[in-house]
Design goal:
Helix 1 (3-27) runs antiparallel to helix 2 (35-46). With 114 residues, the protein is mostly helical. The protein has helices at residues 3-27, 35-46, 52-74, 82-85, 88-113.
Length: 114
Amino acid sequence: MSTPTLRRDSRSATIIVSAWAVPVLVIGQFAMMAVIPVVLVLVGTLRTTRGRALHWWAGALTLAYATPLAVWAIGPDRAPSLSKDMSPVLAALIVAVAIGVAIAHHRLDKKSAA
């Protein structure tokens, strides 16, 4: 494999693994640790020029995650963890958008392979 292909494939794998890690961490009550895969998805998709739709999905995931994070950080009565302070509706939204990112990325990979 040439270097550009290897770099693209590793970035693609990082985006997919990170997108699937977000719902696992949020559902598993490790929402604060989900900031790492959210940032990896955002940076990985913004550095990719393959699909504009994936940029929108990554932005939606970042916004969905940043909303409860900001509410938790700014709120006067902070819970000891983000997971305990997060609304179940916002947690479900983060999970749904993260799964949407992963599915959109899989579909984009299938289109580019064909």
